[in-house]
Amino acid sequence: MDQQQLRLWRKQIQQELDRTMDFWLRHSHDQEYGGFFTCLARDGAVYEEVKYVWLQGRQVWTYCRLYRTLPRFCRPEILNAAITGGEFLIRHARISADSQKCAFVLTRDGKAMKVQRTVFSECFYVMAMDELWRATGQRKYKEEAVKMMDEIIRWVRQDPSELGRPALPGAVPTNAMAVPMMLLCLVQQLEEADEVMTVKYSEVGSWAVQQIVQHVQRKGKAVLENVSEDGNELPGSLGRHQNPGHAIEAGWFLLCYAVKHQDPELSKVAIQNFMVQPFQTGWDQEHGGLFSFLDVDGHCPTQLEWNMKMWWPHTEALIAFLMAYFEKRDAKLLQQFEKVFEFVFSKFTDPEHGEWFGYLSQEGKVALNIKGGPFKGCFHVPRCLYMCELILDKLLAEKV
Amino acid sequence: MDQQQLRLWRKQIQQELDRTMDFWLRHSHDQEYGGFFTCLARDGAVYEEVKYVWLQGRQVWTYCRLYRTLPRFCRPEILNAAITGGEFLIRHARISADSQKCAFVLTRDGKAMKVQRTVFSECFYVMAMDELWRATGQRKYKEEAVKMMDEIIRWVRQDPSELGRPALPGAVPTNAMAVPMMLLCLVQQLEEADEVMTVKYSEVGSWAVQQIVQHVQRKGKAVLENVSEDGNELPGSLGRHQNPGHAIEAGWFLLCYAVKHQDPELSKVAIQNFMVQPFQTGWDQEHGGLFSFLDVDGHCPTQLEWNMKMWWPHTEALIAFLMAYFEKRDAKLLQQFEKVFEFVFSKFTDPEHGEWFGYLSQEGKVALNIKGGPFKGCFHVPRCLYMCELILDKLLAEKV
Asked: Out of the domains of life, which is the source (chains A, B) (predicted)?
């Protein structure tokens, strides 16, 4: 391992994180209603004022996490913005007073515009509230987080009727990987340094892990996004659907769990099945970058963006391979990190305005020059950079 | 006007229509359950067996329309396939016995998998049933069409509650152009050579025309996909959204209406505002082809496929400019037809296997090589080719 290379990466990553946070701090705060504008053009100009609940929750999470873990971000303006975002969510995210169901998108002043029949708005609500509790010490945020978490668990494992999906005779009961991944992520969030929560959610955590691992199919040769509820392959496009970035993200979620629970078998599955294998099949040998979607049998996916290179799978790959290298010290894992790092820093970053472009064509050309939109906010890029910075710090500290 | 050029186009179009229909006749029929496979790979192989209701209805329409209007398609195998498709829809499309609401997608054997909270499955059901009545003479199909049509009108103009969209305080009441366009298309379908229907749906037709024309905004300089219910511009990305192919399609719907109702003012709007202007702003000067989406103020659209060149806007442009030329005899309109024709026949067609590619990158490279999928079936290509063939025949007949 080359110390100098690590220091260079460390420096570039810190600089990139600072530039990214500067972008959001400067352009995204709604001083009038609280919360954040997330539809920002390349230069940070607001091109749309509506507020996506996923992205409100994620930005609160990011601000609090950086505030409480990296000293240079422990600044009142950051905490205060997070609090106004959290309060905006508490006031407006729920679509009615007698339900925990949250909207997908709100008007600038907080009126519900659309609702998704899924649990994800609510999941990012939990992440926001738990971090806000940790950053402020205010108990009410923790209570918000736990109340919402318990409802999500009930919807997922007992009774989804409140989500509003009609029961249809041809609907295939599906274990979609996003759901247990999200639950595992929330369990890991809630149980950090908290014995009570660790006990409370321990069974949910191990259930989620087992649900995720069911997605390893084809005798270990592929991760499939959708499997049957008993862990078998589903027919058709749905069953053959692959999302390499998602598999890799699941990989580092599982690796965290394996390390904490000292489970070397799971650690191996996390690295081999969820990182190395999906990276191998998901990386575009011709133009570089990870494909967004693939079909395990090589059919053309029906998603129009299948061959686009999106920012977030690359952030997940950076975290995953650096974390895996930290745990295993296998130089091949660091080479994969380097491969992704070079692609990212030559294609996605924007030194002129900060934050990353989100959507490149297969050839690596910027296809949408927005920095934020309905699904891209202040989350994947800073989470990746902050986690990589911490891991690099640990590696560098060892060697001094 | 160059007779020889017209004859050449006529020949290429007939050949292309034959090749297209041969593709669907050969690969898409489900001999076991009736109806059609529409998820077909480049060579026609079925890669997914589920049945999208839009595409079932559209294929029945196409088969019947060709059967009854072009002698070379007046073949029993075509009518019989259409009948099995229509009967499949009658048996399976509705999600319950006490409602006209139809599914969006069915299992191969007809069980509802998903429902959209819109009226479009039902609209293509009407098109299928009306054509099936015209092709077979069987009254029950006409009754199916009218019963469904009246329910659609009730949902759109009186009470949408059965569609299942929750009423939310921040939801913006919107006149989305697709809805009146679809209704105008259905009125024109139902009233063909039918006095009773012409009287019955006359008011709906003129209402639809007036709703469509409201989408001309910015002092005539732009067609916007979504306007307020009183015909004003809406804020944000939704209000700025443009879909050039959709505007051009609306153009030929309006031109048909204007010709039938001898309305020269509407005819002018149809050609100038809905065809010429959207074509000007929607055509990619660098790589050719029509953009899928644009933002009227030049912001980057948030739809990932905004810069892709899709097959269907180009089919609409071929119909629109040839029809407009037929009505106005303005050589500039024929030049636009030629421009689109050349792009289409060099980029979308596939002489090896038939049918067109559906999705090209901005640069014109095939991005998805499927011939059919969740939104592409046996409809836009044959409708375009058949309509162009008829118009060219009329032009050529004049000159003999």
From this structure: Eukaryota
C-alpha distances (whole Å) from A15 to each of A342, A351, A384, B93, B245 are 15, 10, 13, 57, 44
- Å from B95 to nearest chain A CA? 8
Per CB-CB distance under 8 Å, the chain A contacts of B307 are 367
Distance from CA of B105 to the nearest CA of A (A): 9
CATH number for B216: 1.50.10.10
Is 80 exceeded by the pLDDT of residue B1? no
Q: Tell me if A302 and B106 make a contact (CB, 8 A cut-off).
A: no
Q: Where are the alpha helices (DSSP H) in A31-105?
A: 53-69, 76-92
CB-CB neighbors (< 8 A) of A305 in chain B: 304-305
User: DSSP of A244-266, one letter per residue?
Assistant: HHHHHHHHHHHHHHHHHTT-HHH
Extended beta strands in B184-339, E state: 216-217, 222-223, 226-228, 241-242, 294-295, 309-310
The tokens for A189 are 């969030």
pLDDT value of position B141: 98
Note whether B166 contacts A107, CB cutoff 8 Å: no
What local confidence, expressed as pLDDT, does residue B67 receive? 98
Cβ pair B300:A41 closer than 8 A: yes
Which residues in chain B have their CB less than 8 angstroms from residue A172's CB? 113
At residue A5, the pLDDT reads 96
Select the residue of B299, B308, B368 nearest A41 (Cβ to Cβ): B299
**Number of neighbours of residue B287 by Cβ within 10 angstroms:** 17
Residue B326 lies in a domain: yes
Cβ contact B124:B61 at 8 Å: yes
- Nearest-CA neighbor of A65 among A185, A150, A181? A185
- Provide the token pair at B58: 């559209």
Residue A367 backbone zone (phi > 0: left; psi -120 to 50: alpha; other: beta): alpha
Contacts with B374 from chain A: Cβ below 8 Å: 302
Nearest to B368 among A39, A50, A300 (CB): A300
Nearest chain A Cα distance for residue B371, angstroms: 10
Tell me whether residue A67 is in a domain: no
pLDDT at B400: 58
- Find the Cα–Cα–Cα–Cα dihedral A93, A94, A95, A97, rounded to 10°: -140
Q: What is the pLDDT of residues A278-321, one digit of tens each?
A: 999 999 999 999 999 999 999 999 999 999 999 999 999 999 99
Residue A166, pLDDT score: 87
In angstroms, the CA B368 to CA B47 distance is 13
Confidence (pLDDT) at B163: 94
What is the nearest CA distance from A231 to chain B, expressed in angstroms?
Answer: 20
Domain contains B256: yes
Q: Per the domain annotation, does B365 fall within a domain?
A: yes
ipTM above 0.85, yes or no: yes
- Spatial distance between the Cα atoms of A220 and A331, rounded to a whole number of angstroms: 23
- Tell me which residue range forms the domain holding B340: 173-369
Collapsing DSSP to helix, strand or coil, B106 comes out as strand
What is the C-alpha to C-alpha distance for residues A251 and A116, in angstroms, rounded to an integer? Answer: 27
Tokens encoding B192:
């063909």
Residue among A41, A111, A299 whose CB faces B169 most closely: A111
Chain A residues with CB inside 8 Å of B296's CB? none
Number of domains composing chain A: 1
